[in-house]
Amino acid sequence: MSDQPIEEDEPLEAIELGKLPLDAWHRDHGARMVPFAGYEMPIQYEGIVAEHEWTRSSASLFDVSHMGQLALRSPENDPELAARELEKLLPGLITSLKPNKMRYSMLLTEEGGVIDDLMVTNTGPHLALVVNGACKWDDIAHLREHLADEVTLTHYDDFALLALQGPKAGDILEELIPGTGALTFMTADLFEYDDGHIWVSRAGYTGEDGFEISVHEGSVAKLADALTSDDRVKPAGLGARDSLRLEAGLPLYGHDLTLETDPVSADLTFALSKKRREGGGYLGHGPVMEAFNNGPATKRVGLKIEGRMPAREGADVFAGDTKVGVVTSGGFSPTLGQPIAMAYVEASYAEEGTELICQVRKKSLPATVTSMPFVAHKYFRGN
Predict the structure, then answer these.
(1) Whole-prediction pTM value?
(2) Disulfide: which of 60, 197, 239, 245 matches 55 by Cβ 3.0-4.6 Å?
(3) Cα distance between residue 346 and residue 98, in whole Å
């Protein structure tokens, strides 16, 4: 996700916003709605900390239907064309992606800046892309501009996307939709539901085990009711999703990732496959490899901050009296019981254990560079 909610005292009616397929469902369940990425979205129900902790201990249902769900299809006489074309725009290896497998990657500019980060899945018949909500129209325009005319691009704007996240998610979904429990992290498949089909991916953006479920808007309320009728599942909003992804050390587009950041400075080199690093052939390859081979000027790092006051986006980071960086995401970690943040700092200050200072409201908060994730990932990779 990319945009932060607009100030709480700004009325929703002041901005023309889209409505999620579950808009009425959220309101009926007591959600507090805020503007986010062009939609009215639930920021919380019971409370951000309570929802955060429930996700860590049981399972929460998040509505992420603002995300863009796209499909790329090749002509029948060249089934791999879509994969080859997509590889021109991102650094991931897509032509070798096996059916029902997923891969994280990024659309890049010629200068190596990040247009968006996204998930790519080989469904068999086509490639499925899930892109950030606030970026999806720009992403669609970028793809249509650069992909071969023979590649068909479809936007599934009549499908919702739910995320069931937490340590009990696997058992819960398996009981409702048999077969889903066999999925492992970064795999996906098609399942029957409500006289139709749903696409289930074992993935998410909380650091916990869980699933993302693509379901037609006509069936999403029935699915949400079925999941939350289980006492182990509660609805959760954007607030808990953000605090969970921060603890998981996952970057947020528009904040930790922008057109001015590249995959190397963002510490996302795992997404640069060796074959693509050596062979190139994608937008931004030259600048990205210059940063990879020579080191970036700045680097995304984790910060643990002393005390109780969080350092939020925009806070300056100092080494002594010298400004060396800026916070891009920050907040209080319910799991760790202390403030944490992500920041871009000069590369010479990015080593783990480096002591820095975050400047917040004329207060100097001691901070230490730490490895991420702040809280260990709990992805299900099989027994």
Answers:
(1) 0.94
(2) 60
(3) 38
- Cα–Cα distances (Å) from 126 to 23, 102, 149, 185, 339, in that order, read 30, 12, 16, 20, 43
**pLDDT at residue 125 tops 80:** yes
**Dmax over Cα atoms in the chain, in whole Å?**
64
Instruction: Please name each of the domains of the chain with its CATH number.
Output: 297-370 (2.40.30.110)
Which has the closest alpha carbon to 183: 85, 282, 102, 267?
102
Q: Where does residue 207 rank: exposed (0-12), middle (13-18), buried (19+ CB within 10 A)?
A: buried
Beta bridge pairs of residue 369: 303
CA distances from 313 to 219, 359, 372 (A): 38, 11, 18
Burial class, 20, CB count within 10 angstroms (exposed 0-12 / middle 13-18 / buried 19+): buried
**In Å, what is the CA distance from 21 to each residue of 41, 66, 94, 158?**
11, 10, 31, 9
121-123-127 Cα angle (round to 5): 55
The pLDDT score that the predictor gives to residue 1 is 37
Contact 1, 68 (CB under 8 A): no
Q: How confident is the model at residue 79 (pLDDT cuts 50, 70, 90)?
A: confident
212-252 confidence digits (pLDDT tens) = 999 999 999 999 999 999 999 999 999 999 999 999 999 99
